[in-house]
Amino acid sequence: MQRTWTAEARDDWMNRRAARREQANRPDSDPRVLREESLERERTEIHETLEDLTRKSAWELQKRPTRTYPAPFAGKMFLPLRYQDDDRKQSIKFAEGDDLNFLVYRLYDAKPDSDFQGTNYVTEDGITSKRHEYLGPTPHVAGYQLDDASKTARIEWWDPYTSLRWVGGSVWKIELYFDEVVGGWVSRPRGDFDEATDTQLYLASGKGP
Question: Where are the annotated segments for Disordered (predicted)?
Fold first, then answer.
């Protein structure tokens, strides 16, 4: 999957890159003719910055989220009940505009069903346990993978203790590709409505070798 650019979004991104290069005292030139090492430097800087921003923006599941995430459509969200479990076994419906972060927090802040079986990564006391304790040592919500066609949402999990990023029974990662429309490195979308930070800001320093 690659990004779809409007003319306005394309021009805004390219103008931000030109401004950053000017601040770095670097001539604004066509990225297609830049030296290979210069492009590699940009790719590395953007990837490292996205990794850092993703870690900082992820919220810990056991704490009430401080940011909202309005649903862009009405649909169904898949919810795993165990660490790296198939998330399609349970789901809840949501309406357009509902805060997905709060819906997730509310479900996992509750106690599991009385007959629920699974590994509790936080406590051995099953009497006072909550659902989030079965999703790993320190589960964080990093984002959502949205599918506009099927009207579904899946949670992107990140656990800083195990360094694992997972969604259902698979893993997710930040990938960059060279976009010919803007002539630069951008993140590959992991679903619909994926407005990554690097499409709003130019994350490289703009400094050449």
Answer: 1-40
Contact 107/85 with Cβ under 8 angstroms? no
Residue type, 187: S
User: 83 with 138: CB under 8 angstroms?
Assistant: no
Please state, in angstroms and rounded to a whole number, the distance separating the CA atoms of residues 107 and 139.
Answer: 14
- Reduced to 3 states (helix: H, G, I; strand: E, B; else coil), residue 124 is coil
Domain extents in the chain: 7-57+174-200, 60-171
Q: How far apart are CA 57 and CA 40, in angstroms?
A: 26
Q: What is the pLDDT along the chain (209 residues), one digit of tens a residue?
A: 888 889 998 898 888 888 877 776 655 455 544 556 677 888 888 899 899 999 999 999 999 999 999 999 999 999 999 999 887 778 999 999 999 999 999 999 999 988 888 899 988 765 678 999 999 999 999 999 999 999 999 999 999 999 999 998 899 999 999 999 988 889 999 999 887 777 776 666 655 44
Cβ-contact 102, 67 below 8 angstroms: no
- Please give the DSSP secondary-structure letter assigned to residue 153: E
> What DSSP character marks residue 2?
-
Residue-wise over 92-107: b if at least 16 C-beta within 10 A, else e?
Answer: eebeeebbbbebbbee
**C-alpha dihedral sign at 70, 2, 140, 74:** positive
> How far apart, in Å, do the first and last CA atoms of the chain sit?
31
